[in-house]
Amino acid sequence: MDFSDWRAQPTGRSRLGKAVLVLLALVGVWAAIKHFGGAAPGYDWDFGVLWKYRSLLVSGLLYTLLFTVICVLLGLLVGLVTGLGRLSSNPLITAPLRAYIEVFRCTPVLVQLVWFYYALPVLTGIEMSAMTAATVCLALYGGAFYSEIVRGGIIAIESGQSEAAMALGMTRLQALRRIILPQAFKKMVPPLMNQSIMQLKNTSLLSVLAVPDLLYQGQLIAHDTYRPLEVYTFIAVAYFLVLLPVTMWAKRMEYGVVRKEA
């Protein structure tokens, strides 16, 4: 088998093939639901009941998207500052930053959400709304991963370029801003996109704090209609339709970076 052209960008035919494959998969899932509704014997699927709650579902989806944008932007800011700090040679700076990163990377985000909302006010005396606690927690959680991406992207640039820039009279900060970061950013884009996609999926955990995202609104509708299968199927399809174009765009950017480096 020849793997020599694995870096090549997908052709128009392959993209069309993937689109057909996704369409067939959706049709297959729908057919399976219709045919094997037997997972709950005698269950009569009725998605029409969701129409009555369309405004609630749309507001939940918009809330999810807005919350994702806020958390991604704050996470990127935290990740940039933390990632640059981790490049310092001073252990008084790097040690606490590494501790922060490992704490957030090595504990479940669901536990972090609950801890921020319920335990942190007890320890500090600072009361936070569910929205504030969720924003701070997800921004710090994403920042821990973004920081390692930033650090890895900068380290991947050859040290000779930084030395050459300083030989031309640039300060360390100027070399970082004008020479290193523009190149490193190209390498960071694919993993940053992938982590941002994970942030969108993590917002589904906000319902534990009663933040009115798409899943929380879905839970209210399921309790009201006793139609959880239709509700959660709709939520899954909504997430899929939002994330599929983003993942395809991220993959396209990744191919672009690989081609430029080849």
- List low-pLDDT spans: 1-8
- Classified by CATH, the class of the domain at 70-212 is Mainly Alpha
Main beta-sheet annotation: none
Number of strands: 0
Order of helices and strands: HHHHHHHHH
Number of helices: 9
Mean pLDDT: 84
Instruction: Provide the β-strand percentage band.
Output: under 5%
The H-level CATH homologous superfamily of the domain at 70-212, spelled out, is: MetI-like
The CATH topology annotation of the domain at 70-212 reads as: MetI-like fold
Question: What would you call the structural class?
Answer: mainly alpha
Shape: flat
Helix content: over 70%
CATH level-two architecture of the domain at 70-212: Orthogonal Bundle
Q: How far is the N terminus from the C terminus?
A: 21 Å
Rg, rounded, reads 23 Å
Write a concise keyword list for the protein shown above.
262 residues; mainly alpha; MetI-like fold; 9 helices; 76% helix; 0% strand
Structure in a nutshell:
The chain has 262 residues and is mainly α.
Layout of SSEs?
Elements: H1 12-35, H2 54-85, H3 91-105, H4 109-124, H5 130-155, H6 159-167, H7 172-202, H8 214-225, H9 228-261
Helix pairs in contact: 2-5, 2-8, 3-5, 4-5, 5-7, 6-7, 7-9, 8-9
How would you describe what is shown here?
The chain crosses the membrane at residues 20-40, 60-87, 231-250. This is Glutamate/aspartate import permease protein GltK. There is one protein chain. It is built from nine helices and no strands. It has 262 residues and is mainly α. Helix 3 packs across helix 5.
